[in-house]
Specification:
Protein name: Cupredoxin domain-containing protein
Helix content: 10-25%
Organism: Nitrogeniibacter mangrovi
Keywords: Signal
Structural class: alpha+beta
Number of strands: 9
CATH class: Mainly Beta
Pfam family, one: Cupredoxin_1
Shape: globular
Number of helices: 1
Order of helices and strands: HEEEEEEEEE
InterPro entries: Cupredoxin, EfeO_Cupredoxin
Radius of gyration: 18 Å
Distance between the termini: 52 Å
Length: 112
Amino acid sequence: MTLNRALCLTLACLALGAPVAARADLPTFEIVAQNGRFSPETVEVPANTRFRVRIVNRNAGPEEFETATPFRELVLAPGVTRTTVYPPLKPGTYPFFGEFHKATAKGRFIAK
């Protein structure tokens, strides 16, 4: 292996590792879907900061967690946990809902 190739490989490994380390530091919030509702219904998140949401589906059937602004959509089978990362939000309220339980599965992020 030439020195240039070894240097390129090392830089590539560092570049790939940096985003993983940055994601590990994201504030993470858990929302549980159960009995057609989300708990908690209100999640306070830091404004102007990327954050991660972990959604756990404890419903007997599937759930679809969705936000319009910013747009995110996660479909979860029963018993499944998935995560998504949100971009920094300006201070304000951002509703979320469950597509499969529209009447009861509602909540909001409050960015402060």
